[in-house]
Amino acid sequence: ASKLDLEAFGSAILKTMVNKARVSGEDVQLQNNGTIYIETESLNGSNYSIVADDIVVLDSDQQEIELKSGSNFSLIAEKGNIVFLDQNETYKVENGNINFTAKTGGDDSTYNGGIIAANLIITGNGNINLEADKNITINKIDAGATGKVSILSKNGILVDGNGIDHNITANQVSISVNTPDQLSAEMDREAATSDVASLKTKVELLR
C-alpha cells in the first residue's frame, strides 16, 4: 500500500510496507520496510516508536506537537536518515524521553545515517539522546533543569540549524562528533541542505 490511515483506541503494533502513514493511538509501535513519511498530527497524545529504513516527519500547520505524558518518543532509521521537514516545529514530551538513532546500514559511501531535527523539549524529568553514523543538525534541544542531552555522531559533524538562537539546555550535556577540515565540513553542510530540498520535492509528489 502507498498510504496507511489508522486510528487506534489504545495500542497499535504494526509491521508495514507503506510510503505514508497517519497512525494515531495511545501507544504506537510501527516497523516499516522502506522509507516512511509520518503525518505530524498523528504524533499528538501518543507514545510513538518507529523503526524504518528512512523516516521523514512531514510539515504541517501545527507548530507544537505534544506527545503522551511519560512516553518514549523513539525513531530508528536502519539505513537512512531521520528528517523533520519543518525544523521550526516543536515536539514536546512531559516526564519522558526522546531517542533518535540513524544508521547507514553499512554503506558509508552515501549521506545516509544523518539526523535533521526539529525543536525537541522535555518538560519535567527525562532525557534526549541523538545518535547518528553521519551528520546531526539541531535546532533547540531542551531537557530542562534535571535532564541530560546526549549527542553522538560517529562519523559526521554537528550542524547548527537555528543560527544565533540558543541550542541546548540541560543539567548534563554530552557531545561527541568528528572535527573535519573546513572543506569537508562545508561539503557535508551542502549535502545536508541538498537532501532536505530533495525530500521536500518527493513529499509534494506524494500529496
Fold and architecture overview:
The chain is mainly β and 207 residues long. It contains one helix and 21 strands. It has one helix at residues 182-206; strands spanning 3-7, 11-16, 20-24, 27-32, 35-38, 47-52, 54-57, 64-66, 72-77, 82-84, 90-94, 97-102, 115-116, 119-123, 128-132, 136-138, 141-142, 148-153, 158-160, 168-169, 172-176. The strands form three sheets. The protein has an eight-stranded parallel β-sheet with strand order 1-3-5-7-10-13-16-19, covered by helices on one side. The longest helix has 25 residues, at 182-206.
Helix and strand topology:
Elements: E1 3-7, E2 11-16, E3 20-24, E4 27-32, E5 35-38, E6 47-52, E7 54-57, E8 64-66, E9 72-77, E10 82-84, E11 90-94, E12 97-102, E13 115-116, E14 119-123, E15 128-132, E16 136-138, E17 141-142, E18 148-153, E19 158-160, E20 168-169, E21 172-176, H1 182-206
Parallel strand pairs: 1-3, 2-4, 3-5, 4-6, 5-7, 6-9, 7-10, 8-11, 9-12, 10-13, 11-14, 12-15, 13-16, 14-17, 15-18, 16-19, 17-20, 18-21
